[in-house]
Write a structure and sequence with these properties.
The protein has helices at residues 22-29, 46-66, 81-86, 91-112, 139-154, 169-182, 204-215, 229-232, 241-244, 258-263, 272-285, 300-316; strands at 16-17, 69-73, 119-125, 160-166, 186-190, 221-225, 246-251, 291-294. With 317 residues, the protein is an alpha/beta fold. Strands 1-2-3-4-5-6-7-8 form an eight-stranded parallel β-barrel, surrounded by six helices. The relative contact order is 0.14. The chain has a single domain (32-316), classed as TIM Barrel (Alpha-Beta Barrel).
Length: 317
């Protein structure tokens, strides 16, 4: 049975960490080849699982030493039917790998969780298409498509699911509906371009309000990921209800656009200190952002800097 599914502590008043940029770390720092930018195939053998564990344990250690909770993600951002097919996985094999991914992080949690520190198991859902290009599904199509992965997570120990790098409200709505049907707490995380808007051109406010209106506010909260804070800081509005729905942030290390990052052959680590200060400022203005971590280009050094910058604020709350 899921340990925290019925009562998620991060929606109350606790600060939680996540990891950073899994795939960029494995590719650029560890020198791994990840076809289709997919990390879930590493679960297939002991060596691959050891590489994943080495990665996750850097962040689990930071959370433990800081006395913070941790949201432990499955490496399943690409484990959906279209991407799975490209990698040679049929429906049965995908269901198995999603199931095993939760079993894997559950074992990892067993070695790290201590009294007073909560570690949540989070089933990660990625976009059907390219996270940097707008998808074309209707909400109904998205619900049917993503239900396959969500239903598998619902039958495991996963405490929640998170849809990461969403770039259309239609896909977000479909995922939220599928999660509600399966009884899974669901987080929707949108990505934006350098102008603070989604790839479709709609604003972050419109995306959140449209998703909430179509789903009776079923997502437990929203996040922003895979964009630098300089891209969306001006798109936020203090005190407005839609902004209060943003419960977390996983920013990129680099201030480059998605198009520039797509063409990059070297990793841009950005400025970890500046990034950390931007997190601290955002949390001060938007205290609902209780989940903090990283996305592309970030590693344990960025998360440590962010944690150090935000802890004074966390201690004061």
């Amino acid at each position: 049975m899921a340990k925290y599914r019925s009562q998620l502590p991060q929606i109350i008043d606790r600060l939680f960490l996540t990891d950073g940029g899994l795939e960029t770390t494995l590719v650029f720092h560890e020198g791994l080849d990840l076809p289709c930018f997919a990390s879930f195939p590493l679960l297939a053998d002991e060596d691959g699982r050891a590489k994943l564990s080495k990665y996750y344990e850097e962040y689990l250690r930071i959370a433990r030493d800081s006395g913070l909770g941790f949201i432990l993600d499955t490496p399943t951002w690409r484990a959906n039917p279209d991407w799975g097919r490209e990698l040679g996985y049929d429906a049965a094999a995908l269901a198995d790998v999603n199931r095993r991914s939760v079993a894997y992080i559950s074992t990892l949690r067993g070695g790290w969780e201590r009294p007073g520190q909560v570690i949540l198991l989070n089933g990660v859902i990625g976009p059907r298409g390219d996270g940097y290009k707008a998808g074309r599904m209707t909400a109904e199509e998205a619900e049917d498509y993503h239900a396959l992965q969500i239903n598998v997570f619902a039958d495991t120990k996963a405490d929640m699911v998170s849809a990461i790098t969403m770039n259309t409200s239609e896909e977000a709505i479909g995922i939220a509906h599928a999660a509600k049907r399966s009884g899974m707490p669901c987080v929707i995380s949108f990505t934006v371009e350098t102008d603070g808007r989604l790839a479709t051109g709609i604003s972050l406010r419109e995306a959140i309000e449209e998703t909430d209106a179509a789903t009776d506010e079923s997502p437990i909260y929203y996040m922003i990921n895979c964009a630098h804070p300089s891209h969306f800081e001006d798109a936020l509005t203090r005190g407005e209800q839609w902004a209060k729905r943003i419960g977390g942030l996983r920013a990129n290390a680099s201030a480059k656009s998605h198009a520039e990052l797509d063409e990059a052959t070297e990793l841009d680590l950005g400025d970890p200190v500046d990034l950390a200060q931007r997190y601290r400022s955002l949390r001060s203005t938007y205290p609902s952002m209780r989940v903090i971590g990283g996305c592309c280009g970030t590693d344990h050094r960025h998360i440590q800097a962010i944690c150090d910058a935000c802890l004074p604020r966390a201690a004061a709350e």
